[in-house]
Amino acid sequence: xxxxxxxxxxxxxxxxxxxxxxxxxxxxxxxxxxxxxxxxxxxxxxxxxxxxxxxxxxxxxxxxxxxxxxxxxxxxxxxxxxxxxxxxxxxxxxxxxxxxxxxxxxxxxxxxxxxxxxxxxxxxxxxxxxxxxxxxxxxxxxxxxxxxxxxxxxxxxxxxxxxxxxxxxxxxxxxxxxxxxxxxxxxxxxxxxxxxxxxxxxxxxxxxxxxxxxxxxxxxxxxxxxxxxxxxx
Length: 233
Ligand code: SF4
Known about the structure:
Layout: E1 6-13, E2 22-27, H1 52-61, E3 68-72, H2 81-92, E4 96-101, H3 106-112, E5 118-122, H4 127-134, H5 139-153, E6 156-163, H6 170-183, E7 187-192, H7 206-210, H8 216-225, E8 228-232
Parallel strand pairs: 2-3, 3-4, 4-5, 5-6, 6-7, 7-8
Antiparallel strand pairs: 1-2
Helix pairs in contact: 3-5
The protein binds iron/sulfur cluster.
The site of iron/sulfur cluster (SF4) has 11 residues, from loops.
């Protein structure tokens, strides 16, 4: 079996797994090409610069200091069995396993689920605008299947919506949150879009990025729909 390809590592974080001290592994490879991707160096599957066994030994050395290891990317599930086997080994050390996923691989998510304790699932846009944002025509349906499956597990998770004003309007955000609430999502994070590079053709203004966060009516509505709403500004 192919070894896991690790492209990056954050050794300590308090924000990537709710309520737990964690480290994050960034796995290489992603089937999507989101317009706002801040990790373009992680999109191609290739030799990750981190040696998997040395990284495993480092994770082992964090026993008692960290509580969770988060698998992020890229799209962590794109590496299939290599990711799942590694999750299994890390979990056996006693760490909780977190997964950040764009939901593109519902079948792999099912196979990984026994080894994942918490997931952050991206819901990137309305169905109508999904393809224009992520560059893939089946991504919405895949995410939708993953979301429904994860809800059916009863395991903890949050849905994450990044409000990129080039692809999301306030009405779109309402549509997304209503869909999530209707499916039974309990926790949602509304994230501010932070441009990582200049888009000369479709530049965004601070006001456009702020519009989702300074609208009291919208905020109150969203806050009323979920048990937990995190506003990541
Ligand atoms: S899913 Fe994440 S890693 Fe993949 S292209 Fe989109 S933002 Fe980048």
